[in-house]
Amino acid sequence: MPRIPMRRFGETHDFGGIAVYLMSKASSYHTADTFVIDGGYTAF
Amino acid sequence: MPPLPPVNTADADKNKSAAATMAGCAGKVGTRICDVSDPASVKAAMAATLDAFGRVDGCFANAGIGGGGRHAFIDRTEEHGGPCSRPSRRCVPRIPGRRAAHDRARHLPATLRPAGATSSLASLFGTGAQRALRRDQGRHHALVRALAVELARQGVTANAILPGWIKSDMTAGIMANENLWPM
Fold first, then answer.
1. Contact B165/A35, CB-based, under 8 Å?
2. For residues B1, B2, B8 and B11, what is the CA-based torsion angle, rounded to 10 degrees?
3. A27–B152 CB contact, under 8 Å
4. Percent of chain B with pLDDT over 90
5. CA distance A35 to B6
6. How do the domains of chain B map onto residue ranges?
7. For residues B46 and B113, what is the distance between their CA atoms, to the nearest angstrom?
8. Which residue has the higher pLDDT, B14 or B178?
9. Quick one: fold of B58-165?
10. Closest CA to B174 of B136, B133, B116, B118
């Protein structure tokens, strides 16, 4: 197990949420960004 | 409720499996074989999707193909560009580009039309013997920002998604390799 602050691997539903956000009007003014979906892994 | 996006991959079994996971959702699910390294295949898949669904609300393009072709850097040859290079280098800009071209041709209004490129944390970190994939993932990270600027005037948003350790069929092998994890 890598050092993930959330102490678990991600599941597909963890990853799918960002796709829903990007497909919705909630993200209509959100562009040129990078979404890191890693349970805090890169914070270490 | 808009139709769910079709699943376009080069693997019929994966298409079938992905469609099955969405079978209980509202809307319509479609699948299609698409070789993203072939411009004609991408164009045909986009056209067929439009015929079936009427419009394309968003695109998500994966950055590349891991595994295979792993060679130590010091043992590389000129042929060791990497198996992922051709599809991943060209397909990610191709897919949102094709969608933007479709919108322009149809004079569609500037509404929400997202394009996402999935890369991985490996665009930020190094991994051994996968230089080609990591090179291309890093490239996509920068490419998305350029696409965001260029396509903004057409109402297309472009963002990159970097997943960490996500359980999937694709990552099952590497997650099972205990040699990778610190004791």
1. no
2. 20
3. no
4. 1
5. 23
6. 58-165
7. 15
8. B14
9. Rossmann fold (3.40.50)
10. B133
Between helices B39-53 and B85-105, what is the axis angle to 10°?
Answer: 40
- The predicted complex's ipTM stands at 0.93
Residue B121 pLDDT: 66
- DSSP assignment string, chain B: -PPPPPEEES-HHHHHHHHHHTTTSSS---EEE--TT-HHHHHHHHHHHHHHHS----EEEE----SS----GGG--TTTT-TTHHHHHHHHHHHHHHHHHHHHHTT--S--EEEEEE--GGGTS--TT-HHHHHHHHHHHHHHHHHHHHHGGGTEEEEEEEE-SB-STTTHHHHT-GGGS--
Q: What is the pLDDT of residues B15-51, one digit of tens each?
A: 888 889 888 888 888 888 888 778 888 889 888 988 9
Say what the pLDDT of residue B136 is.
67
B124 touches chain A (CB under 8 A): yes
Q: Which residues from chain B sit within 8 angstroms of residue A37, using beta carbons? A: 161-164, 166
Q: Read off the DSSP letter of residue A36.
A: E
- pTM here? 0.71
At residue A11, the pLDDT reads: 92
Q: Which residue reads 């949102």 in tokens?
A: B96
pLDDT of residue B99: 53
The mean pLDDT value for A4-23 works out to 88
